[in-house]
Each structure stands twice: as C-alpha cells, then as structure tokens.
Specification:
CATH class of the largest domain: Alpha Beta
Strand order of the largest sheet: 5-6-7-3-8-9
Number of helices: 10
Bound molecules: adenosine-5'-triphosphate, magnesium ion
CATH architecture of the largest domain: 3-Layer(aba) Sandwich
Number of domains: 2
CATH topology of the largest domain: Rossmann fold
Largest sheet: 6 strands, mixed
Shape: globular
Distance between the termini: 69 Å
Strand content: 25-35%
Order of helices and strands: EEEHEHEHHHEHEHEEHEEEHEH
Length: 354
Amino acid sequence: MTGSESGFIELDGVEKVFEVRRKTGFMKRERRQVRAVDSISFRVASGEMVGYIGPNGAGKSTTIKMLTGILTPSAGRVRVAGIDPSRDRIRLAHRIGVVFGQRTTLWWDLPLIDSYRLMHRMYRIPDARYRENLDRLVELLGLADLLDVPVRQLSLGQRMRGDIAAALLHDPEVLYLDEPTIGLDVVSKAKVREFLRELNAERGTTVLLTTHDLQDIEQLCKRVMVIDHGRLMYDGPLTGLHEAGESERTLVVDLERELPPIEAPAPARVVRVDGPRQWLAFPAAESAAPLVAGIAARYPLVDLSVREPDIEAVIAKMLHPREEKPGDTSRDAPGQAAGNTPGDAPNPPERATT
Ligand SMILES: Nc1ncnc2c1ncn2[C@@H]1O[C@H](COP(=O)(O)OP(=O)(O)OP(=O)(O)O)[C@@H](O)[C@H]1O
Ligand SMILES: [Mg+2]
C-alpha cells in the first residue's frame, strides 16, 4: 500500500475552466468561461508541509477540490499517492484528509463524538486504531470536554479543532487544509499551528496549507507556492519569496544621542529618525553584518535590532510590482508604493528627517 511514490502530490499542466452563465438583461444570458486554474504544475514530496497562498479568487480552493476528486480538471494530470483523484475518489478518500475552514464535515445536530463514530464506520477504520487515534487527537486538540456537545453549539475554534480531528481519524498520509485558522483568536490559532507542526514532524503527514493568515505560513512552511489568477507565480522557499519580492529589512539603531541621519552605503538608507533612534531599510537578501559594522565604527551605537519584512507587503509587491493604489492611502504615505513600508515604521519617509 505504501509504495515509494505514496504521499506524493503531482500536478502537470492542470487546468480548470468553469462555464458560467450570467443574466445580462431580460431573457438574455451571456456564457462566459472562468479559467480558475491555468496550467499549474507542481510536486509535493511525502512529508512536506507546503503553503498555498494567493488573493481571493486565485484558484486555491479549486486546486484543492481537484486534489480530492470533488472537481475534475478540464486539462492536465493530477496524481495523489499515485491515484487519479477524479477517477478513484473513494479509494483516495482513505489516504487523504481535508479540512475546509469555511464549512464543516461534522454532523451539525449531533454531539461531536457521534460524527467520529460515523466516520469510524464510513472509513472502516479498524477498532483498535480508531480508539488509539481518537484518544490521541482528543488529547492533542483538547476535545475531551466537547465530545458530548452538539456541533452547532461549538464555538468556531472548538469546531475547527473538531474538524481537524475528524480529518485525521483514518490516519491519512496527506492533509489538505483550506483556511484552517479563519476566524480563530490568537490562542486558538497557536494551538492549531502547534498541532499541525507536531503532526508533520512526528507522523510525517504531508500537509498542503491554504490560508490568508501569512503567520500560519511563516510559522509552519519552509516552502510556499503563490497563485494568482489561476497561475503559479512562485514556488520555492519562504525566504526566497523575500528576494523575489525585492523586500527590505529594517535595521533599528539606538545612538547615544540625537544625530543627523546616518550616512549608510546605498541601497541602505535612513527612512526614519526619532530622537536618538534611527531606522534604516536595506535589501532583505543582504546580510546586516557589514551595515552594522560600518555604523558601529563611525557612530556611537548603544543598541540595535533587525526587523523582518512584512510578508504580506512582499507578496503584494510581487503580484503587483508597479501598482500604486491612489485610493488606498490609509496605511501608507501618499505617493509611496504599496508594500514599501519598511517594518512597522509608522512615519512616512518624507517626514523622517524633519
Ligand atoms: N463552481 C464554480 N463555478 C463557477 N466559477 C467558480 C466555481 N468555483 C470557483 N469559481 C471561480 O473560480 C475562481 C477561483 O475560485 P477559488 O474558490 O478557487 O478561489 P480561492 O483562491 O480559493 O479564493 P478565496 O481566497 O477567496 O477562497 C473564482 O473566480 C471563482 O469565482
Ligand atoms: Mg478558497
């Protein structure tokens, strides 16, 4: 059963085109094609934990639905654990687990435990294994006090944990998560992330994670894929994303006293001064060491820290390199390119040195 290729996810030139009909007037309908997924190819090795991100409508959920067999690709080839999902959906179901954060797979009116009992039978999980998995998941996800509560009475975070357990009762080799932290508070998010990290590390479960919370990705995934308008825009290490997006890190230095802006070698430059504290932006891909050494040699340095770039800004810049949003000046200074704000510096650079 567990051949050498099991756990692999393979997509080759996969497309999904939806036919949509729109009412354009009285008795008038227009047929239109939506290319939700546009010749996507990638491969995920067994045991990997990969982030699959992109803006609304990018095609993420459509991809996941093709990986489960819910949707059939319009073109291309999909294999999950060597299985063609749309042809062999039932057989594949025993090997994969799915969590759609926006919807529950649990029975709404039944106590949580009843959903698990139903899955025990549906998936024909051997009794001993079911017991063992249930005990483990109940403990790890803190579900003990919730088992007798009807699903509709669970809070969002409780229900999500319940859904994650449901997806894993049958020991799937692959887990697809479509926005598993949506609407969760910080503590619940941390619990879910911790659980996923352990699942991946200890059981080697392959995880494909779709989320709009980029902290999920930063804390869990070494590799990330960015999709936009159905196309794969980036596939590589999370760190490389910063280079692709030409992002900048921020060096924050505390000087002994208030001084004119530090003269740093380009492209490093001071973007903000506040009393003895100065903020310098420099390319994220470069080491901070020479910059720090140069400053330390010429200025009375008391303390320093480096701030990582905001990954959301990096992605925005990557997807819309030249786009400036004239109407969206709520966060950025006028005239400043979206996504160019270094770190969390609240002051626009124009005012930095005044
Ligand atoms: N069943 C469908 N029929 C027609 N169009 C669809 C269908 N499902 C999705 N689409 C369209 O395909 C595109 C991709 O949708 P998809 O749900 O995959 O996006 P997504 O990346 O998951 O977005 P979000 O972040 O909002 O969840 C959208 O334009 C959407 O309107
Ligand atoms: Mg979606």
